[in-house]
């Protein structure tokens, strides 16, 4: 019984049928090399891998050059290519519902307003918390640093700077 496995990975547009066939051939050669001690076969496999790498790199360059030259917004296209290569793709998440205190909210406007109110209130809370811990009334920056940060600063041993002046 044969099983067909389909990959969920994105299909690269630059991969040609020739590259697919060559990748299958490379896999077959790898399996042969693994089972064999034939030095000539291993040398052939390494050369095959080198040539295939160069071919795939050239195919990728040609594909991305074609896309960027045909693009109206070159910068946007360049960043899209970079993000694709890094594996970063935009994920359009559409929030259908939100549960708060066992209440299900499904109206998109209400969900947006709840998020907006949350982030507005957090900003005020963070500012209030940060400001109550730091005494900014001191005019001398050295006193301000030493009074607000209780851990001692490490000595700096550099010919152009030193903490000895402040001790």
Overview of the structural elements:
With 167 residues, the chain is mainly α. It has five helices and two strands; from the N terminus they run H-H-H-E-E-H-H. Among the domains are: 17-86, no CATH class; 95-134. 58% of the residues lie in helices and 4% in strands. A two-stranded antiparallel ribbon has the order 1-2. A hairpin with a 2-residue loop joins strand 1 and strand 2. Helix 1 (17-35) runs antiparallel to helix 2 (39-69) and helix 2 packs antiparallel against helix 3.
The Rg value, from CA coordinates, equals 30 Å
* Mean pLDDT across all amino acids: 77
Task: Give the topology string: H per helix, E per strand.
Answer: HHHEEHH
Order of neighbouring strands in the sheet with most strands: 1-2
Which shape, going by the Cα principal axes? elongated
| H/I helix tally | 5
Strand content: under 5%
Structural class: mainly alpha
Describe the structure concisely for a colleague.
Helices cover 58% and strands 4% of the residues. By secondary structure, it is mostly helical. A hairpin with a 2-residue loop joins strand 1 and strand 2.
What order do the helices and strands come in, and which of them pair?
Elements: H1 17-35, H2 39-69, H3 74-86, E1 98-100, E2 103-105, H4 108-133, H5 141-148
Antiparallel strand pairs: 1-2
Helix pairs in contact: 1-2, 2-3
Task: Please supply descriptive tags for the structure shown above.
single chain; mainly alpha; 167 residues; two-stranded antiparallel sheet; elongated; 4% strand; 5 helices; 2 strands
